[in-house]
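Action item from last week, closing it out:
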Amino acid sequence: MRAGFGSIRRATTAAAAIALGVSLIAAVPQAMAKDKDKEPAKPTISPDFGAVAGPVQKAVADYQDKKTKLPAADVKALALTVVPQLAKIESKVKAPLDKEVFGQWEYLVGMGAEDDALEAKGLNLMLDSGLMTTEQNLQISAQLGQMAYKAKDYPAAIKALTPAVANPAAQDGIGEMLAASYESSNQPKAGLDALGAFVAAHKAAGKPVSAEVYDFAVGIAFRAKLLPETADWATQRLAVNPTSRNWLEAAQLVRTNLANPTNQDELDISRLLDATGALKLTPDVTGREYVIYLQSINANLLPTEALRIKDAGVASGALRSDDTFVKDIEAAARPRLAADSRSLDGLAKDAAAAPTSRVAVTAGNIFVSHNDWARADEMFTLAMTKGVTDEDKPHVLIRLGMAQIGEAKYADAKATLAKVTGAQAPIAGLWSVYADQKAAGK
C-alpha cells in the first residue's frame, strides 16, 4: 500500500474540524427568530441538547485552547477528562445540528484521547447529520475508511469508502484503499470493479488518475490469478505510463491470455514490441522475445524482416550468432533476400489482377516486413474489398492499422483496429493504445 494513503488523514483532519459549535449554539435564538417566509429555516439545536450542551461545550473549547500549549502526554490526559462528559449527554443528541456539533466534539476529543472508536463515532455522526458539504462528506468517508482499514475491519472500510468512488475529487489513495479492502476480504474481482468505477468517474470529469492506481490494479489481478483482468489493466496502464517495461508486460499478458495463439498472433505482438522499443530492454528479458519473434516469421517469405530482427537480437546480446537457431534463420533468409527486394514492384499489379484476396494479403505482409507502410495500406485495403477469410480478417485489420500508424494516419488506424473482434481484439487494443501515443507525440 503506497504512501498516498497517509495523506488522507491529514487532509481530513484539517477539513473535518470545521467549527467547534460554540457559535452554532450561541446562534440558536437568532436562527429561530428568522422570518420563515423570507428564507428557508436554518437547522437549529434541539431544546433537549441545548439545555445540557453548555458545560460540555465549555470543556471542549477549553481543551482546544490548551492542547497546543501542552506536551503530547498531557494533551491525552486532558482529552480523557472530557470523554465522560460527552458520554453523559450523548442521549440528548437528536436533531441534525446536534449531530454535527456533537460529532465534531467526539472527533476532536477522540483524536486527543487516541480513541479511534470515539473518533469514528464522531465522524459517523457528522455524516448522519446531512449538513456536511460534498467535499466534507468525501473527506470524512476517507478518514473512516482509513481507520477501519487500519483496524482490519474491511466491511466497515468498504461501506465508508464506496460512496467516494463516484466522486472525481477523491484522492487516488481512496480508490486503492477500497480495492485493498475488497482484496483483504477475498473479493479481488469486486475490488477491481471498484477501481474501474473510480477511474471511470475521474476520466468522465477530466481528472487524472496516477499510474500507481493501474499498478495497484495489476497487482490485485495478478495475485488473484485473474488473467484477463491482469491483461486488461496492464493495457490500460500504458495510456498513463507507456514505459518499455510496461509495454513488454502488457504484451506478454495479452499473449498468455490467448487460448491458442498462432504464429500470426505472435507476429502481431512481436511487431508491437519492436515498434514500442520494448525489444531494447536488457537481454535477460528480451532473449525469449527475439526467439518468439523469429519463430513467428516465415523466413522464406519475409527474409528482410527475419534478418533485421536476427541482427538486432545479436547486436543487443539477446541472441548469440553461433547459436544453431540463429544460424538456421540466417541460412533460410539470406538466399531469399535479393529475390524479396526484386519482387516488390510487381506485387501490387499481381494483387490487383488476382480473383481473390490471397495475393493482396501476401503482398501486404511483405510490404509490412519492409516498413513500406503506404503500399501495405494499399494492399490490405484491396484485400478487404475482395473479401478475406474469417481466419485472415483480424490479422489483415491489425496490419492495416499498423500501416496506417506508420503513415501517421492515427484516426484511421484507431477506426480500423476497432473493427477487430474475437480472440485478437486485445492485440488490436494494444496497437490502438500505441496509435494514441503516436498521435500525442509520445
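Closing note: The chain has three domains: 1-132, 152-257, 265-439.
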